[in-house]
Amino acid sequence: MDLVAAAFASRARHAAISWAFGGGSVVAQIRLIGMIIEHLTDQGTMDPSLLYEPPFTDVAPTGPEQVFDEGNVAQLFSRIQEINDSAVA
C-alpha cells in the first residue's frame, strides 16, 4: 500500500469509528477496534472473551470497558456476535 492509500485508509478508519461510537474516539478506542477487525479478518470469527486477553489487554488492560462506556461495549459484543453468526451461516 502506498503512502497516500495508507493515509486515506487511516482517515477512513478514524471516521468510521467516530461515526459508529458517536464521536470522541480516542487512540485506544481506534487501536482496539483495529485489532478486532484484524482478528476477524484473519480468523473469521471471534470469541468476545478474547478482549480480556493479550494482545487486546495491551491496549485496554482491564478489557473494553476501560476505553468504551457500557452501552458501547454491549454494542461491540453484539456486533461481534452478528459477525460470528454470519460467518457460521
In short:
With 89 residues, the protein is an all-alpha fold.
Please give the structural blueprint.
Layout: H1 3-20, H2 27-43, H3 70-88
State the end-to-end CA separation: 32 Å
The protein's oligomeric status is single chain
Percentage of helical residues?
55-70%
Order of helices and strands: HHH
| SS-derived structural category | mainly alpha
- Strand tally is 0
Helical segment count: 3
Global Rg: 13 Å
Q: Into which percentage range does the β-strand content fall?
A: under 5%
Mean pLDDT, all residues: 84
Descriptive report:
By secondary structure, the protein is mostly helical. The chain is 61% helix and 0% strand. It contains 3 helices and no strands. The longest helix has 19 residues. The termini are far apart.
Describe this protein with a few key phrases.
89 residues
